[in-house]
Structure formats: structure tokens, C-alpha cells
Amino acid sequence: MGKKVDVITEETKRLCRSIVAWRKGRRALLAGLARENGERKTAVSLLRAELAGDRREMARQTKANRVAFLAGLRGAIAAQQREWQADRAGGRLAWLNRAAPATQPATGEMAPPAHRPPAAPRKSMKKNRYR
């Protein structure tokens, strides 16, 4: 019976050592996971900060491009309006059988014609409800 007790005692001690080893391994695993999680959080926050900076830079660049485009568009529209006004003034003078002036005003504004044809009376498009 003494040998059986010694065997049981040895098996119990081996089992306890195995349990302690597994617990230490679990603690090490959890500590490693916590460390990796902290590193991952740091990496993600750095990436987010970098993306936010890139987004701000893209917004600044987009705004600058948009302002430049609109400035060019405004200039192109103004040039087309000046051409249209000149064509319209030439058409008015041709209608009145007059020659176009030799020089146009430098500001791009058209000089009023010397004589305007009478305007046709306008008809109202609204119907009178009270008739």
C-alpha cells in the first residue's frame, strides 16, 4: 500500500506542477495579448492622425484648385460676355444701317446707340381673374 500512496502522491504533485505551468503560460499569453493590443492601439491612433493630416492637406489643395478654376471660369465668362455685347452692338448698328464705330471703349462696356428703335408694347401673360 505504501507504493500506491507514493505513486498517487507523485501523480498529484506532477498534476499540480502541470496546472501551475499552464497558469503561468496563460498569464504570459494574456500579458502578450495585452501588450500587442496596446501596440495595435498606438499604431491605429498614429494611422488615424496621419490620415487626418492627409485629409486636411487634400481639402486645402482641393480648395486652392477650386478657387483657381473659378477664377479662370469667371475670366472666361467675362470675355464671352464682352464678345456677346460687341456682337449685339454690331447687330444693333447693322439693323439701323449705321457703321460700327472705329474703336470700342477700353472697359468692355458698349456705348449706348444714338437712336433706339421704339420698343413693342408688352402683353401681360397673366389672365385677369376678375372679368
What does this structure look like?
Helices cover 72% and strands 0% of the residues. It is mostly helical and 131 residues long. The longest helix has 94 residues. It is built from one helix and no strands. The mean pLDDT is 84. The radius of gyration is 45 Å and the shape is rod-shaped.
Q: What would the average pLDDT be, to the nearest integer?
A: 84
Rg over CA atoms, rounded to whole Å, is 45 Å
Query: How many DSSP-defined strands?
Result: 0
| Main β-sheet description | none
Cα shape: rod-shaped
Cα-to-Cα separation, first versus last residue: 128 Å
> What is the ordering of alpha helices and beta strands?
H
Overall structural class, as computed from helix and strand content, comes to mainly alpha
Stretches where pLDDT is under 50 for at least 5 consecutive residues are none
Helix content: over 70%
Helical stretch tally? 1
Strand share of the residues?
A: under 5%
Based on the model shown, name its key terms.
single chain; 131 residues; mainly alpha; rod-shaped
Summarize the entry for a quick read.
The protein is an all-alpha fold and 131 residues long.
Q: How is this fold's topology laid out?
A:
Elements: H1 2-95
